[in-house]
Amino acid sequence: MLNYILIILLSFFLTILISIPYIKLLYKFNIRRISKTDLDRVMPGKKIKMGTPIMGGAVIILTIAVLTTLFLRHWDYFYMILIVSILGAFLGGIDEYTNTLGRTILAIRKSRPNPKESLIKVSGFWANIKHFVLIPWRWFEESLRIMGSEQRGLKSHYKFLLYILITFVVVYFLISNNHLPVFYFPYLGAIDFGWFYYVIVIFLLIGFAVAFGITDGLDGLSAGTHAISFSAFGLLAVYLGYSEMAMLAFIIVGAELAFLYFNIKPARMEMSDVGTLPLGMLFVITSILIYREVSLLFIGALFIIEILSSVGQQWSVKLRKKRILLVAPIHHHFEKLGWSENKVVERFWLFAVISGLIGIAIALI
Question: Domains of the chain: which residue ranges?
Fold first, then answer.
């Protein structure tokens, strides 16, 4: 146990050392949040956090990359962790870049004489063929559009395709290392799901990557809940004998706690997709490698509630023309009810602790 305590401390202080000059660079190159006009519209009177540096999650990913290289480079899953961390941060950075500057692709299309005109021009018989072939894509685009594709930055269907690339990396390493395609259920034991197991894994990876991003909405909310949830999986990994996985979980915990120091209100930097995308996937990977995926329903309950509140709101407005929350996601709903930002964050931390303990208990049955 001493080794795990030391790795948390090492990760914490390394992240602190990285963060101090990194924040200065963010201010120097003006990598900051420009505006949150949508939130301002639905929550008038709220002080909008304009000018806060973004892409702060990079310090967490850099710490993970350095410490896993030092201590876990002989682990079978080392390269998977490294690729998911770095590639996830890179794709998250692309989204944040376009989010800051506006929808780049849309801007290019609007610059053309006829923005509605297709990039691929066909007519007659081939136009009908094109229309038929693209029907699944239009359905896919529309279904994701109402779940957030109208925001600035990359549209949801483009982000989904990029996320898929990362999930294929995970599936490849799981198959290559003969990871058993089983889910462990309390009282029932391990049940083999065959190839359908990987479909569920891909769904979980994408779902929690998005959920982590949605949760990143208040100062201290993401880092605090992440640290609590990864701690739960770290303790499970220690108890079940997965030392490498425990080491990774506690590296992340140390980095998250250090980031939290700079993210507590008023935040000096925001995590943004650079951190939430890879960390959401690493959260799922942690559960996979200790064969306790079902515990995600409990240890990750807060993140599930966050994404369901956002998606449910979008679908309710689309289908029923009614809101189910005053504002989505749910942490802004409580702000709208009159809770202070600190009160929301601290009670969400408490919820994460309790759900984490329940998840540990369920995993050990």
Answer: 2-42+50-114+133-183+193-292
The total number of residues written for the chain in this structure: 365
Whether the bond into 113 is cis, omega within 30 of 0: no
pLDDT in tens, 41-50: 555 555 555 5
Dist CA 230 CA 212 (whole Å): 13
Cα of 344 vs its chain's centroid, Å:
20
- Under 8 Å between Cβ of 33 and 52: yes
In angstroms, the CA 298 to CA 301 distance is 5
CA distance 65 to 18: 13
Q: Is the separation of the CB atoms in 341 and 335 below 8 Å?
A: yes
Mean pLDDT of 128-151: 53
Q: How many CB atoms lie within 10 A of CB 151?
A: 12
**Is-contact 334 237, C-beta < 8 A?**
no
pLDDT digits (tens, 9 = 90+) for 337-363: 999 999 999 999 999 999 999 999 999
The chain-wide mean pLDDT, for the chain, equals: 86
